[in-house]
Amino acid sequence: TQTMFRSIVRPVVVKPIIEQVRFYRYLTKPLPTVYEPLPKKITGKSVMQYVEEKLLSKYDPTGKRRALIRNNKEGLRSGDIIKVTYLDRSDVTGRIIAIKRSHNSIGSNILIRTKLNKVGSEVRIPVYNPNIRNIEVLEKPEKYLPRTKQYYIRETSRLDVDDVEAYIKRKTGEQQKTKHAKK
């Protein structure tokens, strides 16, 4: 019986296995730090309050934009005409329809409306946008319309805004004429 199995079993030849050798390249420079160090623990404040205060101090160091957003007489209200100037010297003029004030005002934005070539256009402007150079109040109306968000002026032709830039030019021209007439 053993001779019978010998013919069936074949001898196994072991071939030498060549292993690839890996070369490691050690860095001569130290690894850069991935994360900035964590701030020290703030007692009495939540993390969100701390982050919002840091962002407010970064994007509004003078506090001018915070004063515009406050809900008081000096702040912006719906119905005011403003001019927003960007860093690339382009500007947008319009009447405020709505102001979205977030909790700590970092996400606040202003919705302004104007008409260009008899077509109404609206622009939503983030107040703390770093590309904004200046937000300037051109005119405050004598009497404000009701409600703080005046979305209803879109449908009514009687209340809808006209070309705001042309209105401001006319008004400044009239003021200059009255100054010259008084002299």
TrEMBL record:
Alphabetized UniProt keyword annotations: Ribonucleoprotein, Ribosomal protein
Record GO cellular component, one term: mitochondrial large ribosomal subunit
Residue spans crossing the bilayer: none
Gene Ontology MF: a single term: structural constituent of ribosome
Gene Ontology biological-process entries: translation
Domain of life per record: Eukaryota
Classification via PANTHER family: LARGE RIBOSOMAL SUBUNIT PROTEIN BL19M, RIBOSOMAL PROTEIN L19
Family listed: Belongs to the bacterial ribosomal protein bL19 family.
Protein name (record): Ribosomal protein, mitochondrial, large subunit, putative
Organism: Candida maltosa (strain Xu316)
